[in-house]
Amino acid sequence: MRGLTMGVIGLTTPVTPLGGIYRIFGLHLPDFCDVGQDLVDELRGQGIVPVVVLSHLGLEDDRRLAETVAGIDLIVGAHSHDRLPAGEERNGVLIAQAGEYAQALGRVDLTLDPVSGRVLDRSAQVLDVPEDEPPDPAVRHSLEGHSDGTAGGGGCR
Question: At the topology level of CATH, where does 7-130 sit?
């Protein structure tokens, strides 16, 4: 019996509307749904299931992705700072987002068929980080020298 292999795809939004900075350099950004479908097809063609998208597109575009791209099982999203306490189902795809600034953690549970890898059940939840939770020392240390002097501030934990 071979093991299961999960496919993970990352998609992000252009930094500025209509890819402004990219156009200055003559770069064309293809539609994220087209790119997503090509990548999902490639993974599925190799027999890889389930397929998860790590998205920094924002909730509206995550919804568009779920509605448009066939073969995605889960979208873990960000960018728009939305909080979906139990996730959101769109077109058979679970979309999960846990808010902003490390105020909460997201948890997704997938139950997979051990032979096919097909998702049998899924759930998402958002877990609040207590206000009095101290920042993790290793994370704080790694942020030092890589920020504007506010390491650990602004909700970073």
Answer: Purple Acid Phosphatase; chain A, domain 2 (3.60.21)
